[in-house]
Amino acid sequence: MISRHRGNLLTEHAGEPLCDFSGIRSNICEMKGDIKIHGNLSSIIFITSSKIHESYRMKPHARKQDKYALSHVKELSVKSVSANDDTPKCTMKHNIPAIVFSTGGYMGNMFHDFTDVLIPLFITTHRFNGEVQFLVSDYRPWWILKYQPLLKQLSRYETIDFNKENEVHCFNEVIVGLKFHKEMSINPSRTPNGYSMVDFAKLIRRSFTLQRESAINLHENHDKKPRLLIISRRRTRSFMNINEVVQMASELNYEVLVEEAGLNSNLGNFSQVVNSCDVLMGVHGAGLTNLVFLPTNAVVIQVVPLGGLESIAYEDFGVPSIDMKLRYLQYSISEAESSLIEQYPRDHPVFKDPATIRKQGWLALRSTYLINQNVKLDVGRFRGVLLEALDLLHQQVE
């Protein structure tokens, strides 16, 4: 019998393997038939009549290239064995499919909560219409509680703490790992029924009982003030002149709210605040993930700090905004609007050649441009962006 390797994948036959390790961000194992799951032993066993067996070691988390994230994800064993082999007896039988995934990695950072788990979970499970059992590895009770409203929409069954489970659960269909398309978004052409981020947004509104489906249309409601929510940051990439920005926005006839989206924020309450707004603005960072709670046709304004971060900023929050049928504006600050001018001379590579900083690696880029940079908006320059947002809210949209 000839074995072959495909990266980390080991398979002993030329047929369709149980697991697909070809994805850039996630590994997926899909099985239909007689499957036994013993969580306490981190073991998933597929009983097959075939004489050809497969064996895999995998971490069910959609950040497979990130060694630090995966250091917080437990490795699982997935293998196929013959019916004659000695396997543990079923103690609990289920007639619904199961999904095994991890809430390790960077959970607690809202951007990673959505891009690494919640959106891939929606992609993987939406077709089951709630008739699916979640088995969660690296179980974090506070995380499950925080997103319980959404998880209950995706599964009608109590979530199982995979690693502490002593029962042997038996299923007829199991998926290990979550399907990933792109940062915080969905490619409809790769989903069974063409569902998209618009459908995910509808699910979010159902989950958190958000009333507003559409942002204000100023063409029809010219006497009303649109609500602008400014996501503030306390430690890094903070607005140094927030009061000036609020005053300028108020003069343009915005009703302005300033909120900090912290780790301990009550998501149910905060989602209601976001949904009540027509424009969301903030400096590039996890707080912008709250755009998922906005009504359709609302405007997202991302302020991009220095560092050549325009592409990653657009990928992280611009594309998801557009995919959700939100309007998107991106504002790159000037050197004069960055706190870095107080730390470096103007001819320093930090300003003149950010590529040299990026070449030093992620930690150097993060330290220089994300951790040690704050923003002092030129309200005269930024005024045009808020006027453009008003213009978008005046436009008729189908």
UniProtKB/TrEMBL annotation:
Keyword Transport included in the entry's annotation: no
Gene Ontology MF term list: pentosyltransferase activity
Pathway: Glycan metabolism
Places the protein is found: Golgi apparatus membrane
Membrane topology: Single-pass type II membrane protein
InterPro entries named in the record: Glyco_transf_61_cat, Glycosyltransferase_61
Any single Pfam family the record assigns to this protein: Glyco_transf_61
Keywords: Glycoprotein, Glycosyltransferase, Transferase
Main location: Golgi
Protein's UniProt keywords contain Glycoprotein: yes
Residue ranges annotated for the Glycosyltransferase 61 catalytic domain, each copy included: 210-301
GO cellular component, one term: Golgi membrane
Protein name: Protein O-linked-mannose beta-1,4-N-acetylglucosaminyltransferase 2-like isoform X2
